[in-house]
């Protein structure tokens, strides 16, 4: 038979510490689409030959970007107004802007999140 072991101390304490760390790498991608068009014209000493100042919508297209399907309407560029000068020989100006539909912007955000947790346990004992 084995002889029992008898501790030779009266009291004491023991502290145990544990630390864990977590690292998360994250990528967020956002797509913004324009599904229509925008046409603007301005100036002075001009007028539209056709009487209208907006191109008519004509075609619808479909596109897939990043696994997302979308469709949009485009203007008929043959229907963009034609301009004429009102007073010959006088100063004039014209500015046309056409913003077409489709993918507008792609935003990618990359970030790293690091967290750590520490726990400490103290045991006190006595005889």
Topology readout:
Elements: E1 11-34, E2 38-44, E3 46-48, E4 57-65, E5 68-75, E6 83-85, E7 93-99, E8 102-126
Antiparallel strand pairs: 1-8, 2-7, 3-6, 4-5
Radius of gyration: 37 Å
Distance linking N and C termini? 25 Å
Strand element count = 8
The overall pLDDT, averaged over residues, is 84
In N-to-C order, the SSE pattern is: EEEEEEEE
Q: Order of strands in the sheet with the most strands? A: 1-8
Would you identify the regions where 5 or more consecutive residues have pLDDT less than 50?
A: none
Report the sheet-strand fraction: over 45%
Supply the number of helical segments. 0
Global morphology: rod-shaped
Considering DSSP H and I runs of 4 or more, what fraction of the residues is helical? under 10%
Q: Quick one: biggest sheet?
A: 2 strands, antiparallel
Structural class: mainly beta
Provide a brief overview of the structure.
With 127 residues, the chain is mostly beta strands. It is 0% helix and 68% strand.
What does this structure look like?
- This protein has strands at residues 11-34, 38-44, 46-48, 57-65, 68-75, 83-85, 93-99, 102-126.
- The two termini are 25 Å apart.
- The strands form 4 sheets. A two-stranded antiparallel ribbon has the order 1-8. It has a two-stranded antiparallel sheet with strand order 2-7. A two-stranded antiparallel sheet has the order 3-6.
- It is rod-shaped, with a radius of gyration of 37 Å.
- Helix content is 0%, strand content 68%.
- It has 127 residues and is mostly beta strands.
- Strand 4 (57-65) and strand 5 form a beta hairpin.
């Amino acid at each position: 038979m084995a002889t029992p072991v008898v501790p030779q101390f009266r009291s004491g304490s023991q502290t145990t510490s544990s630390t864990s760390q977590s690292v998360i790498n994250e990528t967020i991608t956002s797509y913004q689409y324009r599904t229509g068009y925008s046409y603007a014209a301005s100036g002075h000493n001009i007028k539209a030959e056709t009487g209208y100042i907006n191109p008519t919508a004509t075609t619808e297209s479909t596109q897939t970007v990043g696994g997302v399907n979308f469709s949009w309407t485009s203007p008929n560029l043959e229907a963009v107004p034609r301009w004429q000068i009102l007073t010959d020989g006088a100063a004039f100006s014209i500015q046309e802007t056409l913003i077409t539909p489709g993918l507008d912007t792609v935003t990618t955000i990359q970030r790293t999140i690091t967290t750590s947790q520490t726990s400490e346990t103290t045991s006190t004992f006595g005889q």
